[in-house]
């Protein structure tokens, strides 16, 4: 380490000396200001640009902050993108679904780094470590995403990041930031977030911090309180950046703590989640190309047990995960037309999952239940991508990618070997007897062509072959007892899941098209049909009905992860029209519609948790400091359900949201009525309400939130 | 009835407490140090390249300034090519030079100066991409204009310069902001220096704007009428959504 420090110092010295030398010599021309040429305008959106697929959707800082002043769940913010919906979890841990594909099928990058699942119920999803108020960019790229954006996924990429480092432009100390706070009447939720940047011309420091908490929310109309929906969490991060002629060096560290988060649709609640990370990144722009080197380390301690609504009971479950990621990415412009992107990634995940014995319990003792014993999942990936800008109206991206995934895990053990624990004891013996080392060689490819035959029309065609290896829980969970298997699964259905060490990676072939039309200024329209066929889709097969310890039937079944064939097709449509004035200062109407059909081809059954047809219609009016908005959201009934999982049907519903905001002296005050008419409805992707079930014995789908009046206050400085 | 125990005895409790596997520790250390070294290497390489001032440009400048004999413009007997307005389709902000339509200089290099057919220039320039196709680099200063057109020629030259930068402008970028670049060329059109004089406060935007100017070089040789002081230019590059 000492040598590194010395080397670093030496390098810094060399760099700074050279930089000073540059400054000195360039002083020769400092006095002549030169002939001023007109401004060169660079449109960073709306152009046909290789590597910027039309199918991708980005939300800007302003959109993020203005449209969701009281949101604590980044995934829910993404539902404004057509084709994106969420599988509900805790109050800040929803899992996004893109075009029917969710969980690890989507690569989610936070500040460019993937975050691994560290829970058998996926409670600490990657986006749970973010707050919408502290993000500055969000982009969603569905299935045909260029391979340079990430491997080991079949459903697309979601990339969110905090503010890019800002530097002073005039040599003085730059102090900038924003702060916001909100209150939500439903559940008495409140929270606040701060972003603070202090920067000189070469050095920049940014702090982001947030806190939020909420009690259980109430369903609409007469649906009552939805139990196990309370939460609290805080996130803090400090980012330092240093820029010079040689590049941009960044180091960022952060801490996340959630003391509790109820999960309405899981048997367990999160009782503690602590995570810290540190990451470094170097970016350089040179004549020969761009460089992006990064490395990160994250450590997560996750604990589950029962919160108030699920008591009495005690069942501690602990998970520890260490993650190390490093990547070297190069972007080499070969000619004015061609750019080649090359990259190498390494990702290491180490996971331990164990359930300490419960004193005095016959079922949960006398030993520690070892669910996953020091499993690792290492992935090394390499890609090459060729971007060609054939003209201002034609571009293409073609890439191939190889990922090798190596997984293994240690021996396991059940709570004990008594008669009642026999299913788990035998399963443990069988699991320990087999070879669990698995290596997958995964190939990916994607090709996208974007063409604008006229100023008002752009067309994009894409094809991708993507592969994802099973995650640690899909491959290495083994408990076959009723209780042990019901602890596994992120489906919110209450059923038990058993891992399958023989799972194969899932391979998806996707074709999609996007047609974007802007027939007149202020009027635009986008339609994206798609089709995905997945070989060896990781779903589950029926094993047995689950019985109570007394042998009585229950509402739940046991399933085992298995490879099936599946297909998805559908269409996303969105459009907007400026009715009066301009987009920023006038009246704007937006509409979107999404439809997806997911089919289990092996069983000729509907796939689990597919969002029914849904549409949104919104009007916003901006006049100077005043902003008014109204939105109508409609979701069709869900009657295509996975009968093997006892997935409940849900009725159609329509919600009305109204909002108003006024900016005065730099402060923006907003008032929002969510679900104005207090409509009672069930979430189509919410799963079953196990918190309520435990208390009332009645099994119902998880209700959506009833009326909530939200107040938001924010400022920028 | 009791099952035989799966394990002789419970494992030591410490076994499941958080800790690093040895393999993990080694590989992480290895990868970490590898990456750190890479970073250092990148830093050193980057520093050696001394980006803000272009070493190659400087050198060629020293040579070419000496050999650029004044072209025999005064002796030119031929009429100037028909003026042609260049359309800047891709640029929403019209350049100042366009206020009085400037002639485009498209004189083919060669010993026998030929008149460029007037149709040629507008045809290529009117295409949606004003980029590389619009204005092929003239390798020599246009020598065939009467002296009174000197200022028009200088305007045209600036326009040409600007077009080349526009053609080389960055494509994808994240963020918005304006970067002002100052650059200097020599008599042959080679880039002598380029630097950010008005930063946007965002590293990538600054560097991408700078790269655009570098990629656009070498430029056509400037008209001889341009004074030494006029060979320095500033250009704002505005990134917006």
Number of helices of chain A: 7
Output the radius of gyration of chain B. Answer: 29 Å
Number of strands of chain A: 34
Per DSSP E runs of 2 or more residues, the count of β-strands of chain B stands at 3
The unreliable regions of chain B are 1-22, 48-145
Instruction: Describe the main β-sheet of chain A briefly.
Output: 22 strands, antiparallel, barrel
Class by alpha and beta content of chain B: alpha+beta
What does this structure look like?
The complex is a heterodimer of chains A (717) and B (241). By secondary structure, chain A is mainly beta. Chain A has one domain (45-716): Maltoporin, Chain A. Chain A contains seven helices and 34 strands. Chain A has a 22-stranded antiparallel β-barrel. Chain A has a five-stranded mixed β-sheet with strand order 3-9-10-7-8. Chain A has a three-stranded antiparallel β-sheet with strand order 4-5-6, with no helix packed on it. Chain A starts with a helix and ends with a strand. Mean pLDDT of chain A is 91; it is low at 1-31. Chain B is α+β, with helices and mostly antiparallel strands. Chain B has one domain (52-68, 79-239). Chain B is 33% helix and 11% strand. Chain B is built from five helices and three strands, in the order ααααββαβ. A three-stranded antiparallel β-sheet of chain B has the order 2-1-3. The N and C termini of chain B lie far apart (73 Å). The model of chain B is unreliable at 1-22 and 48-145 (pLDDT under 50). Chains A and B meet through helix 1, strand 1, strand 2, strand 15 and strand 16 of A and helix 1, helix 4, strand 1, strand 2 and helix 5 of B.
